[in-house]
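Hi everyone, sorry if this is the wrong subforum. Our group has a chain we'd like a structural model of before ordering constructs, and none of us has done structure prediction before. Sequence below.
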Amino acid sequence: MLRLSKKMLFAIEAVLDIAYHAGSEPVQSREITRRQDIPRRYLEQALQQLVREDILIGVRGPRGGYRLARERRRISIGDIVRAVRRMETADDPLQDTAGSELGIKVVRPLWLEMQGEVMKQLDQVSIDDMCNRAHKSGIESEGRKSLDFII
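Answer:
Right subforum, don't worry. Here is the predicted structure as tokens:
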């Protein structure tokens, strides 16, 4: 069942943070924790799952951190939601084979149809769209502050 869990919210916020605040260096998890106030234990789990799902790239070393694996316009909120759903272990009642005939033949198909519509909408929203929303809302990008355009 599609619901906004803390892990899902933190994963979306982390990817958006990386996209919005990225400069020339990878974004370190401690910076994401500082800016988003995400508990480190949740954040590290989510970041590792997002690396496994090819949404992020993990960069090792003292100046390591995380980068987007694709252009921000090519990563949708739906991609992140699917990645986190695969990570979460909660049982999905829609997949339970037991139940009443009305539940199995009427209610569950309706719920699956509605979930499909929500996922279609989430697939239409890119990280680039979210970065534009952040910019329009007046949030300053820390990565852009540190970029030097002097030639």
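For your construct planning: The chain has a mean pLDDT of 87. The chain has seven helices and two strands.
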